[in-house]
Write a structure and sequence with these properties.
- The chain has about 200 residues and is mainly alpha-helical.
- The protein has one domain.
- It contains eight helices and six strands, in the order ββαβααααβαααββ.
- The strands form three sheets. A two-stranded antiparallel ribbon has the order 1-2.
Length: about 200
């Protein structure tokens, strides 16, 4: 799923986006610390206040290659003193996929958290996107900024369609240097910045 000045569409490959766009905003972690703690996540949780649970824990780089939940959870408990939420572990395959490509093209991808983008666009915290109120809130905010909003798309969940447009809003700001950065942009062991762009 990608939103751009051309509209919103479902895409199957990140490589396809590299052929079309210079800057690609993505709602996935880019840059993983050795212990799983990133200042940008701490900053995002503070910014989102009571909605901080929408910022998923990012795995330590040393664990992200593990594919069995029980093993990863036990390793995390033994090495870092905390377990891994199943919901977070479920997106590890996508994190690995993004990581492989981002390491090849480190200046092309930027990490964006849609909830942070919506909060910045609106000047207030958005209600949960799983409610009618939250959906209408996001539609209004996007309409205010873009003049129109795409709400449905074949092959995509409605909240993902709205999130993609929020990611585009922040990516566009980044492209012109009008963005805000959460975290200090420290580089991880592979040279990828640990930051969230708003």
């Amino acid at each position: 799923m990608v939103a751009s000045a051309e509209g919103v569409e479902v895409v199957r490959s990140l490589l396809e986006l590299l052929r079309r766009f210079d800057i690609i905003g993505i709602d996935m972690p880019i840059g993983m610390s050795d212990d799983g703690r990133r200042l940008c996540d701490t900053d995002a949780r503070k910014a989102l206040s009571h909605r901080s649970s929408t910022v998923f824990p990012v795995p330590p780089r040393s664990l992200v290659g593990l594919t069995d939940y029980a093993t990863a959870n036990q390793e995390s408990k033994e090495r870092f003193g905390r377990g891994i939420p199943r919901q977070s572990f479920a997106i590890w395959p996508k994190i690995r996929e993004v990581d492989v490509i981002a390491r090849q093209f480190p200046t092309r991808f930027i990490e964006i958290h849609p909830e942070c983008s919506f909060a910045a666009m609106a000047g207030e915290l958005p209600p949960t996107k799983h409610s009618d109120t939250g959906k209408k809130f996001r539609e209004k905010v996007l309409r205010d900024h873009f003049g129109m909003v795409v709400t449905t798309l074949a092959g995509a969940k409605p909240d993902d369609v709205l999130d993609a447009q929020a990611v585009f809003w922040s990516a566009r700001r980044f492209a012109v240097g009008d963005h805000r950065t959460l975290g200090d942009g420290a580089l991880d062991a592979c040279g990828l910045p640990m930051r969230i762009v708003v």
